[in-house]
Amino acid sequence: MWLLAVPEGSREPAPMGRHRSLSNVFNLREPQIENMPSQSAYIIAARRTAIGRIGGLHKSRRLEELCAPLIGVALQDSGVDPGQVDELIVGNASEGGNPARLIALAAGLPEITPAATIDRQCGSGLDAIVAAARSISLGESRAIVAGGAEAISMAPWRVAKPRSLQQLPRFLSYDPGAAEERDGPLHLESSEALAARLGISRADQDAYTLRSYLKAEQAREKKRFVGEIAPIRSNPEEARDQSSSAPDFKDLAQLAPYLPPDGTLTPGNTSTLHDGAAVAVVVSHEVWSSLGKPRGLRLLAHATRGTSPDDEAAAPIEAMRKLKAGYRGYKASDIGAIEISESSAAQAIALVRTLELDEDIVNADGGAIARGHPFAAASSVLVTRLFTRMARGESKGPSLGIATLGVAGGMGIAALFEAV
Q1: Which residues are CB-neighbours of 211 under 8 A, at least 6 positions away?
Q2: SS3 363
Q3: Catalytic site residue 67?
Q4: Whole-angstrom Cα distance, residue 386 to residue 380?
Q5: pTM
């Protein structure tokens, strides 16, 4: 975990004496990261595209065509000139190479602006934003555009090399839970095990799913996504998530489970891979002040935690626990907004029950089940959602919010933000 803002009452680490033991120097217990001094980094703009089904809304858009217009809009929102951007950092898991450079050039950033691509699967977009804040906190940069982008509809095909001359090549799925790409169990099996362990029934999951869709519909009707979604073209389809229409509860109940005969996860109560992008403009305190201290988010802390691949669905719970243990400046009651890009309703319910959270503050405008899960961009979408809930507009939102999700292979990520 990395701390990006020092809580009150923290102390500088004591200087290391000549005879200090190695056991003290290399403390193998939970690191006392709350004592690390740093400068603050501020998110002063955050935008996303509408989330589209694979082969749907963004079916003909290459990654740079999907993400570059978004960068222009976010920079315009922030008041930061493209020539002032020190770097572009993009999370992506399907393209290969360094597509961030292509995106930077397509967005009209100066050729001297460096660009880097990060791949931690679903957590890549949030990792990119954290990397930007880390660079700013160290004084290396003053303004960075960071986020995630995924154009699976146009991504290169992935083909497995035959194991012998008698075998044919086979296509690989981009879904991180696909059996042919992992030695561990499918994420569906992990979620099923979590649901069984916590007594989360099929009815519980379907009810959660329906509530998620209804929340998303209500948010759209109240225009809460206006200012968050940046349409690439001027038409109504570009201003709404493509998969957000609520199903009938009876339809949900009739869907066959993925893992018969006793499985509880279905195509209705799980999220699926989608196309989409989300970026944020992250600046130093100096830049934030020079722009008149606009409303925004300050990244306080970030935690990652590995788990057994068998327990992948519970990884966000472990990341949240690590976040709270490492950053001692808040209580659960201080959190007013939590966004999770859930792989399944079972995962989201488990998070709420295990950590005793208020379900009303978790995905208050619907989650990934309703809008789709744009792979590496999913975690940066969470940041745009928190920006809307906590900083966008004139009304004062919650003071603290958390973005969290699980990552393929058994990892969880969580980040704590403060409204400024």
Answers
A1: none
A2: coil
A3: no
A4: 10
A5: 0.88
